[in-house]
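Internal ticket #5521
Category: modeling
Description: The requester needs a full-assembly model to guide mutagenesis choices. All entity lines are attached below as received. Residue total reported by intake: 390.
Assigned to: D.W.
Attached entities:
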Amino acid sequence: MQTCRLIVDPPQSGAWNMAVDEALLESAVAGGLPVFRLYQWSEPTLSLGYFQAVADRQRHPASLGCPLVRRRSGGGAILHDYELTYSLVIPPGRSSRTPQQHYDLVHDAIVEILTPFTSGSGLVVRKSAGIKRSPAAEPFLCFQRRATGDVVLADQKLGPDHKIAGSAQRKHRGTILQHGSLLIARSAAAPELPGVLDLCGTRAEPTKFAGELADLLAKAVPQKGGSWEPSKLSAAELAQAERFVAERFGNANWNHCR
Amino acid sequence: MKPEELLYAKTHEWVALSTEGADKIATVGISAFAVEALTDLVFMELPKVGRQVQPEESFCEIESVKAVSDIYAPVAGEVIAVNSTLPDKLETLNHDPYGAGWIAKIKITDESSLASLLTHAAYQKQCEEEAH
């Protein structure tokens, strides 16, 4: 049986979080094992999708005071605050799935673990059919977009739905880095986006609740032909992450490149 | 251009060779197989003219279904032209990947880099293996 790495990290900065994911991607390119990493954010941070322009953040005044980091994955901007974030790294030759199937792999697990929380709330957790728009017509924020398979909480009486989880990918030399976010609670820097706790009317401390969901999600995401084993970054991965902070994710020239 | 007459990188770029004076030029694009696998293209960033590239070096990036992928230089050389209208008309890659969907022209500086390219038949075999 092939062991796969499960890394659960404490809240850290946006630049460090993105740098660690990039280091794990490079590690997998060089022959490393699959990784499932779960983490949170030490301060509210706006991440841009790889192709988004920095100037577009003016479209979202509430988050203008937050630090900015550019992701290597696609999609729209995310205000990371009370959130559980994951990264899934799949080495070359370890997958015959399409991007959508990889999104579904994690999103199905999110639906599974959240279903018990919605009972009695009048809401149902399900995957969205998606809304197709031209790239120019897409909202700035990822959580105001609807891609096929995004996880939404919807009123059972067909009221409006609220996106609570979405994912995006970076493919590099046959390796896949998939990022995804699960909104736990509303942030003052993105007040238009309620999280799971707000929608379900559940009283809980968001960071603690995110930690509990992390444990559940680690058990619910399947690993074909293997098992997730607790792991930490190697010394080489830590050194590479530090380089990526300096060269990319903590570097204004790189973050503001478009 | 006919796909049967092109050379291919294992990473799904096609290469059409031509000569301009004493220079050997590689016109580069991505194969129909790659375009189909990417689906729903939304963004593309072309390389800069004048950039020196090496084989297997990422020189162009493309986004589809929220997935950002690299496009790799198939030969060693200098980028001397790019298809600057392509990022605004990405559907061209679906309609005409081997013609109007060309991405860049590279002036080859090291012809030994051509040795690792595949014939159409060998590339087709690789695609069949990847599809299974």
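Resolution: model delivered.
Comment from assignee: The helical segments of chain A are 14-29, 99-118, 196-200, 206-220, 235-249, 252-255.
Ticket closed.
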